[in-house]
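sorry for the late reply, my laptop died twice this morning and i had to redo everyting from scratch. anyway the thing you sent over, i finally got around to it. pasting the sequence first so we're on the same page, its 177 residues, then the predicted structure underneath. double check i copied it right bc i was rushing
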Amino acid sequence: MFRRACLAAFLFVLSLTAIAQNDNFPDRKEIVINTFPSIELSNFTFANIYKDGRTRFHQDMRWKNVGDKPIAAFEIVVLKYDAFDQRLIGSRWLVTGKDSSNWNHLIPGTQEGDGLRALGAEEVMTAIAYVRAARYADGSLWRVNENDVIQKLKAVAPGIKDFGSVKPDAKPGAEQK
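ok and here's the structure:
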């Protein structure tokens, strides 16, 4: 009797683990808008991944310096929206050179990639990544025009009626106030 109870408990826990391994919307959307003329973002993915007894929100991406000057650092913003197209708190991702482990300048023609891991699951249906700011190796700065981002968002995600703030920290949109 004790063995059956232990086996039943073990199978129950195992079934919960199997369910938790795919806490993602199957039709989630990963969108990239390339706003910075010198960086091309690509291969953007996000998912809740269950591993080692917990779920973490993973974001991965690749980038390439398509410009003619080395880049010292750039900031990627990931805007996040739930299943009802309401704005969630986004991510700010500072790429310090080539990637998080190599702070050397990203020279023209170089392609790199990296990822972020959050401490818990996130209920994200749509995520949109873009470069908000950059510093060239010569010290000059570039910043995105937020109105240009809004126009590009309307083109790539026409279903979202209120984008809210295009900064990583969400501000309620007009419909959410």
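Helices lie at 2-20, 146-156.
thats about all i looked at so far, will dig more tmrw
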